[in-house]
Amino acid sequence: MITNDVVAHLANLSRIALTPEEIEKLTGELGVILDAINKVQEVATADVPATSHPIPLVNVFRPDVIGDTLSAEEALSGAPEHDGSRFKVSAILGEEQ
């Protein structure tokens, strides 16, 4: 049984600020999820093999084949900015150029 106190504790551990209304809503939603898990555990038996997918899957990708490629000049010809051999992009995440 999941309670408001449990949800508040989990939110605190996760560093998530929740209002009392959000805690109440999540308590109900998590309770439904746990009930569904309990139903699955009731049905699952040791003689049923685990599966990752109900139907067998095969690779649908074509094999890699080396073909004609663009030269560096052709690839960079449409770039808004480049340094002659590479695309020039803005720095991200506070990195220095």
TrEMBL record:
Class of the enzyme per the UniProt entry, highest EC level: ligase
Keyword S-adenosyl-L-methionine on entry: no
Protein name from the UniProt record: Aspartyl/glutamyl-tRNA(Asn/Gln) amidotransferase subunit C
Keywords, sorted A to Z: ATP-binding, Ligase, Nucleotide-binding, Protein biosynthesis, Transferase
Keyword flag ATP-binding: yes
Top-rank taxon: Bacteria
Enzyme Commission number: 6.3.5.-
Gene Ontology molecular function: asparaginyl-tRNA synthase (glutamine-hydrolyzing) activity; ATP binding; glutaminyl-tRNA synthase (glutamine-hydrolyzing) activity; transferase activity
SUPFAM superfamilies associated with the record: Glu-tRNAGln amidotransferase C subunit (SSF141000)
Reaction catalysed by this enzyme: L-aspartyl-tRNA(Asn) + L-glutamine + ATP + H2O = L-asparaginyl-tRNA(Asn) + L-glutamate + ADP + phosphate + 2 H(+); L-glutamyl-tRNA(Gln) + L-glutamine + ATP + H2O = L-glutaminyl-tRNA(Gln) + L-glutamate + ADP + phosphate + H(+)
UniProt family annotation: Belongs to the GatC family.
Assembly mode: Heterotrimer of A, B and C subunits.
Pfam families assigned: GatC
GO biological process: glutaminyl-tRNAGln biosynthesis via transamidation; regulation of translational fidelity; translation
Annotated InterPro entries: Asp/Glu-ADT_sf_sub_c, GatC
Record function comment: Allows the formation of correctly charged Asn-tRNA(Asn) or Gln-tRNA(Gln) through the transamidation of misacylated Asp-tRNA(Asn) or Glu-tRNA(Gln) in organisms which lack either or both of asparaginyl-tRNA or glutaminyl-tRNA synthetases. The reaction takes place in the presence of glutamine and ATP through an activated phospho-Asp-tRNA(Asn) or phospho-Glu-tRNA(Gln).
